[in-house]
Amino acid sequence: MKPWREVAVPHRDVLEGTFQQSEFAADITAVSTGRASREYQDAGAFFDRTFITEGMAMLLTQVAQRLAGRGGEPVVQLQTAFGGGKTHTMLAVYHLASRKCALSDLAGIPALVDRAGLMDVPQARVAVLDGTAHAPGQPWKRGSQTIKTLWGEMAWQLGGAEAFALVAEADATGTSPGKDVLRDLLGRHAPCVVLIDELVAYIRQFPESQAISGGSYDSNLSFVQALTEAVKLVPRAFVLASLPESDLEAGSQRGVASLRALEKTFGRVQALWKPVATEEAFEIVRRRLFEPVRDEKTREAVCRAFADAYIAEGVKLPADTQERRYFERLLHAYPIHPEVFDRLYEDWTTIDGFQRTRGVLKLMAKVIYRLWKDDNKDLLIMPGSLPLHDSSSRNELTYYLPAGWDAVIERDIDSDRAETTALESKEPRFGQVAAARRIARTIFLGSAPSSVASKVAARGLDRAHIVLGCLQPGQAASIYADALGRLADRLHYLNASGDRSQDATRFWFDTRANLRREMEDRKRRFDDRTEVRGKIADALKKTVGNVTSFDGVHTFTPHSDVPDDSALRLVVLPPEAWYAREEHRLAFEAVLETIGKNGAKPRYRSNRLLFLAPDHGALSRLNDATRVALAWGSIVEDVKEGRLNIDLLQKNQAEKELKSAEDALPRVVRECYKWLLCPMMDTPTDPKPGIEAFALNTTGGSFGGEIERVCSDNELVIATWSPIHLRTKLKELYWKSGQSAANAASFFEDTLRYLYMPRLKTKDVLAQAIRAGAASKDFFGTAYGEADGKFEGFSLGDGNAVFDDTLLLIEPQAAQAYEDAIRPTATPAVEPTTATTPSGVAEGPGGYISNGGSASPTVVTIPPAPAAAKLKTFYGSAEVPPATAKMRLVQIAEEIVSVLTSDPNATVRLVVEISAEFPDGVGDNVRRAVSENARSLGLKSADWE
Question: Of 75, 390, 602, 805, which sits 20 to 30 A from 467 (CA to CA)?
Answer without folding.
Answer: 390
